[in-house]
Design goal:
Elements: E1 7-11, H1 16-28, E2 34-37, H2 54-61, H3 67-86, E3 90-95, E4 98-100, H4 104-116, E5 125-127, E6 134-143, E7 148-156, E8 163-167, H5 168-177, H6 185-196, E9 199-203, E10 207-209, H7 223-228, H8 234-259
Parallel strand pairs: 1-2, 1-3, 5-9
Antiparallel strand pairs: 3-8, 4-10, 5-8, 6-7, 7-9
Length: 265
């Protein structure tokens, strides 16, 4: 399949086995990619990072972040910056534990074709690797050679950042809005997109995860306890966050339904 959009693969220096597996998977589909050297935060003291606000993280998440989570966040910033620099209207960002389904890249192209046939880009980010989604509205059906899928307005943007398709407008907006870091990147994507209802998802997901052990685990077993101990209100804050997000998502779903079919022209 001929590439019609840039692909960026996030991979830690030294993670050669994961890079080889991802490279082989992309080769099987005839897809080339640009490797993004991931930010290695495993030995990082988060408190030394000026972009990280631990007080706000503890307020929002009920805990602080480990260095690996901050490293993952910075890695996605690098990928978004690389995409914007290409000038392309759409860009696919993959983590190196992704597994493309047989029609994955054809479905990515179908999403782009669907968008290019419309009058405006009214989404920032498409999640292509989420196995579980909630609070959505179907907006289009995609047909590939051997599979079909549905584009959904993801009012409650799904977690996991295994495979993300950026619109150019979305990546630019993300790069202008991400500071300070107060949560992991997948939490941030939900937090950010739930405000504007600018997220979509493809179901079933064109990409899955290999299930390989995380490369962002703390370098020592004490790192998590020392830097990210949960506050005594952790569970309460988590519940409040989840309930608040779901209520916002339901509100978006109701508003979206009231707009009528012209919404997706």
């Amino acid at each position: 399949m001929k590439d019609s959009y840039p692909i960026f693969l996030i991979n830690l220096d030294g993670s050669s086995e994961r890079l080889s597996a991802a490279h082989a998977a992309l080769d099987r589909h005839g897809m080339s990619f640009v490797r993004i050297s991931a930010f290695d935060g495993r030995k990082l003291d988060p408190l030394t990072i000026p972009e990280y606000n631990q007080a706000e993280a503890r307020r929002y998440m009920g805990r602080g972040l480990v260095g690996g989570e901050i490293g993952c966040f910075f890695s996605h910033i690098r990928a978004a910056e690389a995409f914007v620099a290409t000038g392309s209207p759409f860009g696919l960002v993959l983590e190196d534990d992704m597994l493309p389904q047989p029609d994955a890249f054809e479905l990515v192209q179908k999403v782009i074709d669907w968008q290019e046939a419309r009058s405006t880009t009214d989404w920032y980010l498409a999640n292509l690797g989420a196995q579980r989604i909630k609070i959505t509205t179907p907006v289009a059906t995609l047909s590939a050679s051997n599979a079909s899928a549905t584009i959904c307005r993801a009012h409650y943007f799904p977690m996991l950042t295994t495979a993300l398709l950026w619109s150019r407008e979305g990546a630019i907006a993300f790069l202008a809005a991400w500071q300070p870091i107060v949560c992991p990147i997948d939490n941030y994507a939900r937090k950010w997109l739930i405000q504007s209802d600018m997220g979509i998802a493809v179901v079933p997901a064109p990409f899955t995860s290999s299930g390989a052990q995380s490369d962002i685990a703390p370098a020592s077993p004490t790192a998590s306890r020392n830097l990210t101990g949960r506050t005594h209100t952790y569970q309460w804050r988590r519940n409040i966050r989840l309930i608040g997000d779901k209520l916002k998502a339901l509100g978006h779903k109701r508003k979206f339904a009231s707009r009528g079919p012209e919404e997706e022209k």
